Amino acid sequence: MLTWIVFIPVAVGLIGFLLPSRIVGWWALLGTLVSLGLAISLVAGFDSSGGLQEVVDESWIPQLGVRFQLGVDGLSLFLVLLTSLLWTATVLWSALQYPDRPRNYFFMLGLAQTATLGAFLAQDLLLFVLFFDLMLIPFYFLIGQWGTGDRVRATIKMIIYTLIGSLLMLVAAIATAVLSADSVGGLTFSIEILRQVPLPTGSQYWIFAFFSLAFLVKMPAFLVHGWVADAYKACPLPVLVLLGGVLSKVAAYGFLRIVMPLFPDAAIQFQDLLLIAGVVSILYGSAMAFTQTDVRLIVAYSSIAQMGFITIGIFSLSGSGGDGAVIQMVNHGLVVAPVFLIIAILAERSGTEDVREMGGMARNAPVLAVLFVIVAMALLAIPGSANFVGEFFILKGVFETDVAIALIASIGIALAAFYSLRMYQRTMHNREAAPGVSREIALREAVVVVPLVLCIVGLALYPGLITTRGENAVDRSLAAVNPDPQPAPEAAAAADRGWTGYAPVAEGSAP
Amino acid sequence: MIDTPDIDYAALSPVIALVTGIVVVLLVGLIGPRGRRGLSSALTLLTLGTTAGLMIWQLGEPDTDLVAGALRSDGLSLTIGLIVVAAAAFVIPLQLRDPAAEEAGFGETHTLLLGSVLGMVLLAEAQNLISLFVALELLSIPLYVLCGSHRSRTQSLESGLKYLIVGSIGSATLLYGSAFIYGGSGGATDFTAIAEGIGTDLADDPLVLIGIAFVAVGLAFKVSIAPFHQWTPDVYQGAPTPITAFMAVATKAAAFAVFARFFITALGPSADQWQPALAALAAITIIVGNVGALGQDSLKRMLGYSGVAQAGYMLTGLLVGSIAGIDALVFYLAAYTLMNLAAFAVIAIRERETPLGDDITAVQGLGRDRPELAWPLTISMLALAGLPGTAGFMGKLFLIEAAVAAEYTWLGVFIVVGSMISLAYYLRVIAAIWMRPAPRLAPAIAGAAPEAEAGAAEPPSRTGRAGRALDGTPSGGRCWLVLGAIIVTSAATIVFGIVPSPLIDFSIHAGEAIISMLGV
């Protein structure tokens, strides 16, 4: 079944070349709906207590010890669902807009979906690297061909930045397999086998550095975020949903899937460094988000801050930090997607993406305003939202590890309120800008945005959906760095106490 | 009664087929009228097909020494031979409408091409110093002529002369080095005898080391390893494009085959001496090639420099001296052949369709106007850059794995650093194809000054009409044979990027040949 999930999108894209260009968008939508259905059935059939499930293990390149191994566990389960959901949203949105050269466009979207799902499901180190690098190609074309502004320069910058990390990761992955070949009895890239025999500490250090660089660039983190502003500015908005919502998660996921189990000594050694990198990302991202005037860049920098949170959650090396990171990955993806779509709606109404020239959009559009306010509240992690649960877990984990870092990171939560409310206010309220027209959300827009907002609300009501299933996998992933796992009591309690996953957490937060 | 060496005609049959083909094609070219491009091409393709068939047949047979041990038919020579023959067969349809072949005569062009192929096949089989040198000259001399075969273009003549001079220096250096090795190893010319002659005692003998250095330099000229690469971009740019395509892949394949055979079998005892030196050369080559290609506006020059960089990658597979390294080298050569041929073919077609020559503006807007050319060129560029999903990625993976296993991890890092630099120029081509509008061409005057900057998104003017050359004759851009060949190679690039096992099985023959030569 996982093989189908991975390869249906690209197959649909290829068949699209044979169809008349008018219907190719709807055909692509059908494909994403099928993968969404498969992803939902994957969640439904998931066994919360089990480890890796639905395993696919085929011989692929026997000469090099590479196998085609897929599998899903609590770490990847909801990321797969998120991916399928956001792709459906993007394809539906795009199908309604009739893009130029639709066959190429939807093929690239399909290829991107295949690569992303492959990266989330791969259980073979090399397969992961391959899909991870492959993701870049369709996004290169999508931004370069359908983007705006100085897109060629932006794409080249993006590719070079991200591939510097990714290609070094390729060397690191090969080195991991070759160096452990003796101890595991033969060349293999299987993560499951490699994790049983950690490498000598010295090799772990440089391999860890290569992997971390790849993931930090992709995330992006402070200092290696140079590509972000240009790429976000040039990217077509529906594609930006995917770029901001899903791609950054692959990197955070890579830390949990690969770095923690395979290079535990290095992870402990460099824990402080990564924590500091995360905190700096939070502060820098928040500060930049607060000062930018381009709406896209506000969200772009806020993503840097959010990814900083996820990084410190992971590198708190504690169970609750990891749980929080997993839930926050899904949350952030779910929140960013409608934000970008609403930006697209607003930009169309007001003819600009500069917050100084926008404003008053809420006057004739109460529904749109309500939707936006929900999303903005989720973005600032108001208590009651799933983001709050995620950030709470993360901060709890970090407090256990390093109080100073946790205190600084808490500032980030306050800053989040500043930038997300500022963005909402400047666009929806204030004086009505001259050229802009305040119009209610149209049906073809609502049909995409409303379901996404409903998902946010749903997850806010029942965050236990993710934590109960993710917990087990997080503990397994962190087993090597955290040899005496303290069970995350809140997560367990949340799961035990029924559907209001966040309630006991809120109690605990107010001593 | 003269004691003649016993000749294994079965193992020699590919060579015999080639020689017969050369004679027939030459005679037909002389007898018939000058314009008989169809017959000449068909006969050449028939020759190449027969040779390939015989080679595939021999691939299953045990390794044999031929002609008193001067040649050896084994996995290495046959895999390389097949790559060379495939490259030649790809080029023949491309030459159908080539002005250079038209001018020089098809019979002559094809004879020279087949002669060069014969040289390459022999070079891959060579296992003593004499046959090595003879085969190398047989390979080179027809290529000097072919490079200059477009006589009405100064650049072509210049490229032929330049190649002749530089190539002769390379050959002379090689010959001089062979003499040292001959002396140093106690008068041996056979590769195995040299290995025995040098043994462990003479491995760091100055005489032998000088010989090794000169031979390495001579071969480095042929495969264009920096700092002996200066001729490459000039010759690639000046030569007729189909010849460049052939030369870029086939010469490299054949020269690397003998490079590997000579260094690993004959000079195996001195491996500790030459490995670090070649590693340094590989690193320099990767950097020089990739940096040189940046900012080149001429696509052929760009591919010339990129070929230098690719030679650096391949040298890595050779110098690690392991069987996995040889497998990786042959795999990469095969992948390189696929991706490079498609790229050159598209360039050749655009050269005839637009007055822009091989300038990068000639492919602008191709994505919209000519998707059947745009996709293959895109795939080639992605594969040359080593992005996943292509044979180029698998090749690099294979090479890096061999390098890391032989404790040359730093060279693996060099390969990926080189790939990163290379993205800047490969992506420039892709951006031109898909993201920039087609250039506005000056009204229909052939040879009008190309307009450098792209104009607004206008359809290309009548001169650039698909499938027609500037003077209205067919350019080959719509020829099903050419398009088919391009599409097949591009498809193979993707297929071997997803399912590389068949190509790996093919390249493993080469490693087995080395094992049997070393007698391990």
Task: Summarize the helices and strands and which ones pair or pack.
The complex is a heterodimer of chains A (511) and B (520).
Chain A: H1 2-16, H2 24-44, E1 53-61, E2 66-72, H3 74-97, H4 102-121, H5 125-134, H6 136-146, H7 151-184, H8 191-194, H9 201-218, H10 228-234, H11 237-262, H12 264-269, H13 271-291, H14 295-315, H15 319-350, H16 366-379, H17 386-401, H18 403-428, H19 443-461, H20 464-478, H21 489-496, H22 503-509
Helix pairs in contact in A: 1-2, 1-4, 2-3, 2-4, 3-4, 3-11, 3-15, 3-19, 3-20, 4-5, 4-6, 4-11, 5-7, 6-7, 7-9, 7-10, 9-11, 10-14, 11-14, 11-15, 11-20, 13-14, 13-18, 14-15, 14-17, 14-18, 15-16, 15-17, 15-19, 15-20, 16-18, 16-19, 17-18, 20-21, 21-22
Chain B: H1 9-31, H2 37-59, E1 64-66, E2 71-73, H3 75-95, H4 99-104, H5 106-125, H6 129-147, H7 154-184, H8 191-198, H9 206-223, H10 231-238, H11 241-266, H12 271-293, H13 299-319, H14 323-353, H15 366-369, H16 371-385, H17 391-405, H18 409-435, H19 480-498, H20 501-518
Helix pairs in contact in B: 1-2, 1-5, 2-3, 2-5, 3-5, 3-11, 3-14, 3-20, 5-6, 5-11, 6-7, 6-11, 7-9, 7-10, 8-11, 9-11, 10-11, 10-13, 11-13, 11-14, 12-13, 12-18, 13-14, 13-17, 13-18, 14-16, 14-17, 14-19, 14-20, 16-18, 16-19, 17-18, 17-19
Walk me through this protein's architecture:
The complex is a heterodimer of chains A (511) and B (520). In chain A, 73% of the residues lie in helices and 3% in strands. Chain A has 511 residues and is mainly alpha-helical. Chain A has a domain at 270-511. A two-stranded antiparallel sheet of chain A has the order 1-2. In chain A, strand 1 (53-61) and strand 2 form a beta hairpin. In chain A, helix 4 runs antiparallel to helix 6 (136-146), helix 6 (136-146) packs antiparallel against helix 7 and helix 10 (228-234) packs across helix 14. The longest helix of chain A is centred in the N-terminal third of the chain and has 34 residues, at 151-184. The longest helix of chain B is centred in the first third of the chain and has 31 residues, at 154-184. Chain B has one domain (9-518). Chain B has 20 helices and 2 strands. The radius of gyration of chain B is 22 Å and the shape is globular. Chain B is mostly helical and 520 residues long. Chain B has helices at residues 9-31, 37-59, 75-95, 99-104, 106-125, 129-147, 154-184, 191-198, 206-223, 231-238, 241-266, 271-293, 299-319, 323-353, 366-369, 371-385, 391-405, 409-435, 480-498, 501-518, and strands at 64-66, 71-73. In chain B, helix 3 (75-95) packs parallel to helix 14, helix 5 (106-125) runs antiparallel to helix 6 and helix 10 (231-238) packs antiparallel against helix 11 (241-266). The A-B interface holds A 60-64, 101, 104, 126, 129-131, 133-134, 136-137, 140-141, 144-145, 151-152, 155-156, 159-160, 163-164, 167-168, 170-171, 174-175, 177-179, 181 and B 327, 367-368, 382, 386-389, 393-394, 396-398, 400-401, 404-405, 409, 412-413, 416-417, 419-420, 423-424, 427-428, 430-431, 434-436, 500-501, 504-505, 508.
